[in-house]
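Lab manual, section 2.4: Encoding a predicted structure.

Procedure: take the sequence of the chain (274 residues), apply the prediction step described in section 2.3, and record the output as structure tokens. A sample record is shown.
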Amino acid sequence: MLDKILTAVHDNLENWNTPQNLALCLSCIDLTTLNTTDTEARVKSFASKVNGFRAKFPQYPLPAAICVYPKWGKAVKDTLKEQGVKVAAVAGGFPNSQTFLEVKLLECRMAVEAGADEVDIVLPLNLFMADDFAGAAKEIASVKEAIGERHLKVILETGAIASSEKIHEASMLAMEAGADFIKTSTGKQEPGATPAAAIVMCNSIKEYYKKTGRKVGFKPAGGISTVKDALCYLAIVDTILGKEWLTPELFRIGASRLANNLLSALEQKTVGYY
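Recorded output:
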């Protein structure tokens, strides 16, 4: 099944290469800055790019969210003038989840207090890889309770999990524990997102939806920068989950380099806006 979908996507990728789909990918981007050199001034400058986007590119959609470290959520919230663009924060001991649960919960609560609409955490792999599935699920559920109605994205770090069976297990565990989105990777470990992992995760989402009736979103992240990359993941989501998943509410993709490459493809010239 996996090989069949990979072949179908690869062989028909040009069919998805339309201006409409490029613009759709642009609308699903989480613009991201997660650098050790981030400062308040840099983050505010980054967010201000979104404020000026419509004046320069009125024909194209805004990104779905701006993703930052928890400390900078307020800076984004204070700077951002455009309605509908969410503030996302990585928290809970990102990028490795190797800290005390109490610290994770406090950081996630503080991220919300600082303005985060969405919180991205990493699956506690130390528990999951030791087959302590109940412990891993309890941590995710505790974070979900701590952040209330904010959306929770759970990063599986699929490059570390490796096997399709384990990626499926991790996907189901995260969704059953309350994840609103499941996400491939932190971008801090190789490999990042892969089409094979995306297929397993999307099939898991489909299985979970049939079982519960609850729609969970999907975000490929980590090493995604080209137009071909973006269209590949859009095609996987379209093939497995259908067009109802092709909205910013259920499909996200990263990151800032990709936004510039999508704009360049749409404009048919090099664009370095972000």
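Check your result against the sample. The CA atoms of residues 233 and 239 lie 10 Å apart.
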